[in-house]
TrEMBL record:
Keywords: Disulfide bond, Glycoprotein, Kinase, Membrane, Serine/threonine-protein kinase, Signal, Transferase, Transmembrane, Transmembrane helix
Source organism (scientific name): Hibiscus sabdariffa
Keyword Kinase among record annotations: yes
Official protein name in the record: Uncharacterized protein
Main location (coarse class): membrane
Entries under InterPro entries matching the protein: WAK, WAK_GUB
Wall-associated receptor kinase domain: residues covered: 168-242
Length: 315
């Protein structure tokens, strides 16, 4: 093998090894030492945990419901399944659909409301979620509190014929969506009809309402016919360590979560989070949880020079 071919092969191997090191670093266990890091397929990084001594405080407890065939994670005191947790202050849950259904001849069959009231460290993300109503004789309400002030908004969805519905379109014709306000708490979702679906009962007997993570949802005209009772939609929550600012939190070292990392305040709400310093990655909430990134094993210039010198020496 000539020197240039050997040099090219060595550079390629070096880059593959570097990428592998990065991948392993990103996927390594981030739970507290000796604590479960998984519930089923869900990774659970500290400050979250499923057992006593494994989470920062009760706000970060995750209930892991284990059976012989599966393990499912829930937010405590709720029936919300936890689908994903990120270190950047996001947590995804699954929520059910609210429905108001009628039989033929007209008469109520099912009427539901639901509440989305997670603990104080969580906000329903106003940038990633949309309030959604589906049906052809539908009015849905989103209610809650912003601070001490009550909030209410409606979304109307109407249509006359199934053939007029357009998949992917949510502009009020069979499907309506509105933005969720920032820092909305104690959320209630309600669905109703204008006329008990009398004029559209041959293809639409229910009004539906739910909050959904916008990037995961695409309207299907089949939703107007029926959304299965077991259907859940993902909702994105923002989480923080506490509702204090970094300055306020640092005044109480015994409860301060960023003792081994850097504190910052996310732009999308009150409270603070922790992050590893520049040049480090890992879990900023654990002692020695942030590991130094060896830029010379990652960046091309260092790699190429080091490998070139090694190749020439070997020649």
């Amino acid at each position: 093998m000539d020197p240039y071919t050997r040099l090219s092969v060595n550079i390629l191997v070096s880059l593959v090894v570097a990428e592998t090191v990065i991948l392993v670093t990103r996927t390594r266990v981030l739970a507290k030492n000796g604590c479960p890091s998984q519930c089923g397929k869900l990774s659970i990084p500290y400050p979250f945990g499923t057992e006593e001594g494994c989470f920062l405080n009760e706000n970060f407890r995750i209930n892991c419901n284990e059976s012989a065939t599966s393990s499912i994670a829930y937010l405590p005191h709720t029936d919300f399944i936890v689908n994903n947790i990120t270190m950047e202050g996001q947590l995804q849950i699954l929520t059910r659909v609210v429905r108001d259904c009628y039989r033929a001849p007209p008469g109520p069959m099912t009427r539901q409301t639901t509440s989305l009231s997670p603990m104080s460290i969580y906000n329903v993300s106003n940038t990633r979620n949309k309030f959604t109503a589906i049906g052809c004789d539908t009015i849905a309400y989103l209610k809650g509190f912003i601070g001490n002030n009550s909030y209410s908004a409606g979304c109307m969805s109407v249509c006359d014929r199934f053939e007029d519905l357009v998949d992917g379109s949510c502009s009020g014709f069979g499907c309506c969506q509105i933005q969720i306000p920032d820092r909305l708490k104690t959320i209630d979702v309600e669905a109703y009809s204008f006329n008990n679906h009398v004029n559209v009962s041959d293809f639409n007997r229910c009004s539906y309402a739910f909050i959904v993570e916008e990037s995961t949802f695409r309207f299907s005209s089949e939703y107007v016919r029926w959304i299965p009772l077991h259907q859940n939609f993902p909702v994105s929550l923002d989480w923080v360590i506490s509702n204090e600012t970094c300055v306020e939190a640092a005044k109480n070292p015994s409860n301060y979560a960023c003792q081994h990392s850097e504190c910052y305040e996310p732009f999308n709400g009150s409270g603070y989070l922790c992050k590893c310093p520049d040049g480090f990655n890992g879990n900023p909430y654990l002692p020695e949880g942030c590991s130094d990134i060896d830029e010379c094993n990652i960046r091309n210039p260092c790699d190429e020079n080091a490998v070139r010198n090694n190749a020439l020496i070997q020649e």
